[in-house]
Amino acid sequence: MSVRAFRAGRSAVGDPFVDSLFGMTEGEPSLFERMMSGEIPAEFVHHDERTIAIRDINPQAPVHVLVVPRKRYRNAAELAGDDPELLAELFRVAANIAESEGIAESGYRLLFNTNEDAGQTVFHVHLHVLGGRQLGALAQQV
Ligand code: 5GP
């Protein structure tokens, strides 16, 4: 079920139950913060003072890694406005991961889903690193 459909079945954006599932509630730790604290298990492929990278639980390609700043920003636009150097760091970490995963030469895709129409489900900004096969069209017609 899509987030939109799921939300449509509930009262509206802002429903505390839905918000808690998707990590949108102010003060509540996000999914990635729960991983950083060890509360939720994750396969880390990188961690440093400012960023982590984990394998996606539902990979869309042979390599599917999420690069996440430790500090929480809602999406890429918020991060770009508040800390462009940290945004650049996500791209540097992604390039290193592409090297270590062996997809730097064959090619890979970096993307941020931003808000509902893009399918963002976790509102703690994260850069998807996808590769290891021909990735095909960027966006599907529906
Ligand atoms: P978004 O849809 O917000 O751009 O990306 C969120 C990503 O987080 C999705 O690709 C989804 O598969 C991944 N994800 C959701 N829950 C978990 C989890 O518990 N563990 C891991 N490793 N990834 C998750």
TrEMBL record:
<dbReference type="InterPro" id="IPR019808">
    <property type="entry name" value="Histidine_triad_CS"/>
</dbReference>
<feature type="short sequence motif" description="Histidine triad motif">
    <location>
        <begin position="124"/>
        <end position="128"/>
    </location>
</feature>
<dbReference type="Pfam" id="PF01230">
    <property type="entry name" value="HIT"/>
</dbReference>
<protein>
    <submittedName>
        <fullName>Histidine triad (HIT) family protein</fullName>
    </submittedName>
</protein>
<dbReference type="InterPro" id="IPR036265">
    <property type="entry name" value="HIT-like_sf"/>
</dbReference>
<dbReference type="GO" id="GO:0003824">
    <property type="term" value="F:catalytic activity"/>
</dbReference>
<feature type="active site" description="Tele-AMP-histidine intermediate">
    <location>
        <position position="126"/>
    </location>
</feature>
<dbReference type="InterPro" id="IPR011146">
    <property type="entry name" value="HIT-like"/>
</dbReference>
<dbReference type="InterPro" id="IPR001310">
    <property type="entry name" value="Histidine_triad_HIT"/>
</dbReference>
<feature type="domain" description="HIT">
    <location>
        <begin position="31"/>
        <end position="140"/>
    </location>
</feature>
